[in-house]
Amino acid sequence: LMCEISSFSELKKLSKYNQVKLVVLGCEFLSLNSTKKFDFNELENIIGYAHLHDIKVCLEAERLFHQDDMMFVKNLIESCPCDYVVYSDLGVYQILSKLGLTDMAIYRAPTYMTNSSDIKTFQLMNEYVVISNQIRSDELVEIVKNVNKNVIIDGFGMACCFYSKRPLVTNYLKFKDYKLKGYRKEILKLKEETRDNFYHLVEDENGTKVYEEAHYALTSILDSIKDCEYFLINHFNVDDKEYLKIVSLYNDYFNGIIN
After folding, report:
1. Helix or strand run (H / E) with residue 174
2. Which residues does 246 contact at the CB level (< 8 Å), separation at least 6?
3. Which of 75, 49, 73, 70 is nearest to 61 (CA)?
4. pLDDT digits (tens, 9 = 90+) for 31-43
């Protein structure tokens, strides 16, 4: 299992599950979708604890970066004692390549990695590739059959279906001359005129993201994908107590306790 963490105390709880082999750490400035963005100075202690319990650590660096950001990104990656870096911006791959660290590279671009040909191409460059969470289950099973096992299954979460670096909520409120306090600290609801369902809307320092209406959870096809290296359980819009229940269920499955 590959799990996100929202606190040091949550890592301690996750370390009790034997199938949790890799945790994802969000970091200020670098991260896009992480539930918790830790200060860089906090990472060393968290990573040290994880390594002490035989858990590898992946640094989440999925933002799209400006040219002026790249030297700072390089310095952060170079000084972080993590095992992997998950990224979307190919500029991050260039940094890892120049540092001789491509064995740490995990490529995650949910709207791109939708077929085995693309995934095989990116597997040549990266240690792992995350398969899209925006395809059908039968397509996922077919992809797994046609690529090597160095893929990560995005198994539980809420899909981010739109991302813009622009502060779209702020711009909309200014245009409409509306006042809304604290909207950058909340998960907002977005409704299209022609649909009844609501999407989830988040604006922060990285821009604006729109997430699907509900969480997805892979269950019925688990036997067909269980040989893949990692199964990712995302934390977005799931409270800590519920998240541990979800991890526990998948942990029991991969231990053969439930099916």
Report:
1. helix 168-176
2. 156, 217, 233, 238
3. 73
4. 988 889 999 999 9
